[in-house]
Amino acid sequence: MTAAKPPRLFLSPPHMGGGEQARVAEAFASNYIAPLGPQVDAFEAAFAEFTGIPHCLAVCSGTAAMHLALRCQGVGPGDLVLASSLTFIASVSPARQLGAQVAFVDSAPDSWNMDPELLGQALAALSAEGKRVKAVIPTDIYGQCADYQRILGVCAPFGVPVVADCAESVGARAQPQSERDDSRHAGAWPGLAASIFSFNGNKIITTSGGGMLASFDAQLMAHARKLSQQAREQAPHYEHAELGYNYRLSNVLAAIGLGQLEMLEARVAKRRQIFRWYREALGGLPGVSLMPEAATGKANRWLTVLQVDEKAFGAGPEALRQALEAENIEARPVWKPMHLQPVFAGCRAFGGAVSEGLFARGLCLPSGTAMAREDVARVAGIIAQTGARGPRGRERA
Ligand SMILES: Cc1ncc(COP(=O)(O)O)c(C=O)c1O
User: Fold this and answer.
1) Could you tell me which of 285, 294, 307 has the C-alpha nearest to residue 380?
2) Tens digit of pLDDT for each residue in 256-299?
3) What's the average model confidence in pLDDT over 197-201?
4) Could you give the count of Cα atoms lying within 13 Å of 327 in the half-sphere of its Cβ?
5) Measured between alpha carbons, how far is 257 from 39 in angstroms, rounded to an integer?
6) Ligand 1 centroid from CA 302, angstroms
């Protein structure tokens, strides 16, 4: 008889807090099933209060939020947009779909986020060539805020708006930069044109699918709101002077979001705890390190991400992924940088070696907030054994 497989350990599954069903029941009781309703209004207000970003628009995905943000910046055919290379494709696919060209900026090794110095060099080089950049899109990778203080400072002389991709950094904080500067939520910089957030099923909180566009700019957000609802003009009949989208979040899903938001602080604390458990279990292994936390903020540790030097450890990230998979545990390679993606062949890249190295050595470990310390120990145990079985591991034994 073969032993039953242990239950699957997913990378980052949804984790309901318990209050969601009552919120959904309220939506049902009032028959506000679709499309909009009081739960959407309440979710937008609660998110605005939590983040400190005054204008919030709940939409059907983070990708939709990015599309609206870029459309509101007037991004279109012939424009050039600069984005982080180390990101998920949804940071930049809306720019391409609007007809713009994209170019990529490499990561800084201490944060894995867009390197502000390299961004400055890229903007200067493009400006010297007579090319104007229409928008810059830094990503808060794996839930760590990019260095917006510096990025905004670098973009200001060129007059380039910054749209922050905070899809992964819900609940993360950017630390005070001075005595008078309170710790702010990810994306909550008044100098940003807009910030986008994701509530996709694998994120730190989820509405099953959903996103938020947020900004300090009331006018921009009024336009985004209009575009998200088929760009209807104010008239009793259906009048349209421009083309919009059907991008709003359903009232039922917003009800889930309200319940999830109540859990957010606890979820961030648990993800950070999971990171510490991994660090205790893996920190001493030769050639193994975990994603650094930059001095500019407090990451939400959406995923715990490992870097492994195959020569020193005895096994590389793909061997580890397969060993975990054989034990019914989901792990995932680090995002493949955008400048290496076939769909962006021919697009310009400023730097690239840092994100290439992170991709080559990286593995994202299961980080769901329902995990117990024993689950982390199980994952770490398989990683340690796999390294020990490799050639260098056998030498060490
Ligand atoms: C960095 C990044 N940007 C954008 C998105 C898109 O969000 P969504 O899946 O809600 O469209 C995601 C996540 O899926 C992401 O990780």
Assistant:
1) 285
2) 999 999 999 999 999 999 999 999 999 899 999 999 999 888 99
3) 97
4) 18
5) 9
6) 13
How many Cα atoms within 13 Å fall on the side-chain side of residue 134? 21
Is the pTM value of this prediction over 0.90? yes
Closest ligand 1 atom, CA of 90?
4
What's residue 389's pLDDT? 83
- Confidence (pLDDT) at 181: 57
Q: How far apart are CA 176 and CA 308, in angstroms?
A: 32
For β-strands 194-198 and 163-165, DSSP reports them as parallel
Report yes or no: 212 and 164 within 8 Å, Cβ to Cβ: no
Helices (H), 185-304: 218-228, 251-262, 264-282
Tell me which residue has tokens 């990451």: 299
CA–CA dist 73, 166 (Å, integer): 18
State the Cα–Cα distance between residues 307 and 298, nearest whole angstrom.
20
The residue contributing the CA closest to ligand 1 atom 8 is 62
Distance 63 CA to ligand 1 centre (A): 6
How far apart are alpha carbons 366 and 346 in whole angstroms?
34
Retrieve residue 265's tokens. 């602080």
Quote the pLDDT of residue 47. Answer: 98
- Which two three-digit tokens encode residue 210? 């959903």
The finding on whether 92 has its CB within 6 A of some atom of ligand 1 is no
pLDDT tens for 140-183 read: 999 999 999 999 999 999 999 999 999 999 999 987 666 555 68
Predicted pLDDT at 176:
62
> Whole-angstrom Cα distance, residue 308 to residue 379?
15
pLDDT tens digits for 23-78? Answer: 999 999 999 997 889 999 999 999 999 999 999 999 999 999 999 999 999 999 99
Does the beta carbon of 90 lie inside 6 Å of ligand 1?
A: yes
AA letter at 162:
V
- Distance from C-alpha of 246 to C-alpha of 138, rounded to nearest angstrom: 26
Mean pLDDT, rounded, for 10-18? 96
